[in-house]
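Subject: design request, 814 residues
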């Protein structure tokens, strides 16, 4: 054993520069892989950990009218299955700009007692503290308000309080910002109110202003284990209909916060997946490249094996020497990779998950680090084991024997020679496809696989990205089959009034009235955001149907994911509740849903949602004689000039819309969260990944070009002796590189297109949209000349160096 250790130590000292470089490369590449893998796990888990740490509510329940008067908001906490309740009230307060004008729309709320922010919906403070409940002059804002109004802790915020009573003077308030928080809604705003600034006042301010300044009220509710949202919804609606709580209007709006949390996680997950894919691709490429580097270093240091064998070292000992010689720097590099990953951990998580991270800074992901470091050692040592075993045989040690070992012949080169092709082309193709002689030859198999995988990955990434872009730019694919919508949120408009407003709008062909609402599917089925549709003029406008038809009387249409999660089939008869009333309907179709959202309640989203006849959602409103609708879907005729006609629509409805308390009235883009956040989170990811993989593929090709130029120098010398000129040597090496690039294109392009097709089909199925695939043939046509030109540019310098070498110099070196 001492002999083995002595030989290993001597070889490492002799070639320390090469082995040190390998250790450094493993540390950098492995550290990037481990950092990305740990970052993917941290990014994916950041929001769930945030929800647990802040005791996030399961449900937000708000009465249609008033739940403070009569004590309904506090009575909700006494319902069976309710673990905690934190009542909150909204106030009619708006920020006032320095010039005295009212600022942008914001949500202004105050807790009714001390539970909000402490027992339920605890705050993650970015700076400062929560308002003192005894001080009316203190407020806390979220990061959206801080950015929107340019505020920080210590800033003064001037507000205007607007009374519900007519002819009451505006009260101006001076509030001091004492804290900036992150709310569960503001990390990824998935509902209407979450997209605007949030300001939280103290309980004392609400008591000072009184109910005359109240805008809304509601309850943040956490449920006991085993209590479903649907069960709570039924019990809360029954409570609201009791005579003692008639101030509520007998109707309750319920938002399933668990569903909204799932939407937020779904918008964050693409970044975690992108990091995981980055780690996987980088790991595979690094193993391929670093494995070849380690094998070459081992080959170079084993040139004197025949001498060692002659001194009495056995084949087993020689094999152990090779493994140990490679294992020491590989292990050192793996440990360095772990250190690099820890040092890079403050860069994670990425995207909105960074805002949700409760413990930013250094992170030690023990599982990733231990498995990653061990994996680096095992895989790289296993990769050089074959080389070490081959070099432990006595036949492969003598240089003369190495030169006599024939490489495999290329049938393609032989066929090309038979066709009378130029000798430079035949020589170049033979060098590309025929294994070089001797143990110093470059590994063609690894190079070709590397190029094919790089081309395939680029094509697959581009195919996936093309389909994602097509979804983003095609409203019909994400459910919007109309040109514009009048969305009044909690307000309404009667059909006759709407007809008068749009009487002079040109080219308006049809419209459909609708109501916002929710339905509760069975026991444990959860609360599903729903829209109720009623024909106005022309054909019924409905979200894009994937199967079946829009709902008629006694029918319902559901989203793909809603059906999948609830185990519902097309044509099935189901039971559900709408507006607190039990309903039975047949599932008539499956649809894709654009964005339909009301306030802070859960919006529809691609595969999530339901469509029912409007009467099912009318509930108490119809009982009270209200015949208005929350929104209207509008479609223009084929001869319409969309921009001009929509402008005319805005002018015709401007006066009415000015009375609606929301940021906009006429909307033309109802892209759902599933499209908006995939667009923002992963739209650039396929291109970034494709660029990275292209660089890695070029790295493999560059390594091959330099290694091939060195290992084939004897062949170049023989060719020059036989009469080849420098120009012909350069032409032959150009054919060599072009042949390898062509092989990568031949197999990589169809493989990548197929992988992109399958990947998009799986992704589209998970989103609940149509799985039709776009194959970017134009990109494939551009890739062919690009890859060939870039590959030859990479091989230019080693090829030029080979052509300039004198034959006598090369043969003397041999």
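Subject: RE: design request

Done. Sequence follows.
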């Amino acid at each position: 054993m001492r002999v083995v250790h002595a030989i290993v130590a001597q070889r490492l000292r002799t070639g320390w520069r090469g082995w040190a470089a390998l250790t450094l490369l493993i540390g950098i590449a492995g550290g990037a892989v481990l950092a990305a893998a740990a970052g993917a796990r941290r990014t994916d888990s950041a929001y769930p950990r945030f929800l647990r740490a802040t005791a996030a509510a399961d449900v937000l329940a708000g009465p249609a009218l008033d739940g403070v008067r009569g004590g309904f908001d506090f009575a909700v906490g006494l319902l069976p299955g309710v673990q905690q309740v934190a009542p909150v009230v909204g106030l009619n307060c708006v920020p006032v700009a320095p010039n005295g004008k009212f600022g942008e729309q914001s949500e202004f709320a105050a807790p009714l007692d001390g539970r909000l922010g402490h027992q339920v919906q605890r705050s993650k403070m970015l700076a400062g503290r929560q308002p003192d409940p005894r001080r009316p002059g203190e407020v806390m804002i979220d990061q959206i308000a801080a950015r929107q109004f340019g505020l920080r802790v210590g800033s003064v915020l001037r507000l205007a309080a607007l009374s519900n009573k007519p002819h009451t003077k505006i009260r101006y308030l001076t509030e001091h910002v004492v804290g900036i928080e992150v709310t569960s809604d503001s990390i990824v705003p998935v509902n209407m109110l979450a997209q605007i600034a949030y300001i939280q006042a103290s309980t004392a301010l609400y008591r000072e202003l009184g109910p005359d300044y109240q805008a809304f009220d509601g309850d943040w509710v956490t449920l006991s284990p085993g209590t479903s949202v649907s069960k709570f919804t039924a019990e809360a609606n029954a409570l609201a209909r009791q005579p003692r709580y008639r101030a509520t209007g007998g109707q309750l709006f319920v938002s399933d916060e668990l569903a909204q949390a799932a939407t937020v996680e779904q918008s964050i997950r693409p970044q975690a997946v992108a990091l995981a894919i980055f780690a996987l691709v980088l790991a595979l490429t690094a193993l391929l490249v670093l494995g070849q580097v380690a094998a070459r270093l081992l080959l170079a240091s084993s040139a004197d094996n025949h001498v060692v064998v002659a001194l009495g070292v056995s084949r087993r000992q020689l094999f152990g020497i090779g493994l140990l010689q490679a294992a020491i720097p590989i292990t050192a590099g793996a440990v360095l990779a772990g250190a690099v990953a820890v040092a890079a951990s403050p860069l994670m998580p990425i995207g909105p998950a960074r805002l949700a991270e409760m413990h930013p800074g250094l992170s030690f992901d023990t599982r990733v680090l231990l498995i990653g470091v061990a994996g680096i050692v095992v895989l790289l040592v296993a990769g050089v084991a074959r080389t070490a075993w081959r070099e432990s045989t006595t036949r492969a040690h003598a240089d003369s024997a190495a030169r006599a070992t024939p490489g495999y012949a290329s049938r393609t080169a032989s066929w090309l020679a038979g066709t009378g092709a130029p000798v430079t082309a035949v020589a170049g193709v033979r060098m590309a496809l025929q294994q070089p002689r001797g143990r110093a030859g470059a590994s063609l198999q690894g190079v070709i696989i590397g190029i094919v995988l790089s081309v395939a990955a680029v094509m697959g990434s581009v195919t996936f990205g093309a389909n994602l872009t097509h979804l983003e730019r095609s409203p019909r694919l994400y459910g919007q089959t109309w040109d514009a919508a009048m969305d009044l949120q909690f307000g309404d408009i009667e059909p006759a009034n709407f007809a008068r407003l749009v009487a002079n709008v040109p080219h308006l062909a049809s419209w459909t009235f609708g109501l916002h609402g929710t339905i509760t599917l069975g026991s444990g089925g959860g609360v599903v955001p729903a829209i109720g549709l009623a024909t106005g003029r022309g054909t019924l406008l409905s979200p894009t149907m994937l199967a079946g038809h829009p709902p008629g009387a006694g029918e319902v249409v559901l989203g793909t994911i809603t059906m999948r999660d609830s185990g519902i089939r097309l044509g099935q008869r189901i039971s559900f509740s709408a507006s607190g009333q039990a309903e039975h309907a047949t599932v008539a179709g499956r649809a894709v849903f654009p964005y339909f959202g009301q306030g802070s309640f859960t919006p529809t989203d691609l595969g999530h949602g339901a469509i029912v006849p409007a009467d099912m959602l009318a509930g108490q409103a119809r009982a009270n004689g209200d015949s208005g609708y929350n929104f209207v879907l509008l479609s223009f005729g084929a001869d319409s000039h969309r921009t001009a006609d929509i402008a005319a629509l805005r002018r015709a409805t401007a006066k009415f819309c000015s009375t609606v308390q929301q940021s906009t009235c006429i909307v033309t883009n109802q892209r759902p969260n599933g499209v908006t956040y995939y667009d923002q989170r992963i739209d650039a990811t396929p291109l970034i990944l494709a660029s990275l993989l292209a660089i890695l593929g070029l790295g493999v090709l560059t390594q091959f070009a330099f290694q091939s130029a060195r290992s084939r120098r004897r062949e170049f010398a023989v060719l020059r002796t036989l009469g080849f000129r420098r120009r012909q040597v350069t032409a032959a090496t150009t054919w060599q590189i072009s042949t390898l690039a062509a092989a990568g294109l031949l197999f990589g392009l169809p493989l990548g297109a197929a992988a992109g097709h399958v990947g998009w089909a799986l992704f589209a199925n998970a989103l609940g949209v149509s799985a039709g695939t776009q194959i970017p043939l134009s990109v494939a046509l551009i890739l062919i000349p690009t890859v060939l030109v870039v590959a030859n540019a990479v091989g230019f310098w080693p090829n030029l160096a080979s052509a300039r070498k004198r034959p006598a110099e090369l043969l003397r070196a041999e």
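The two ends are 35 Å apart (CA to CA).
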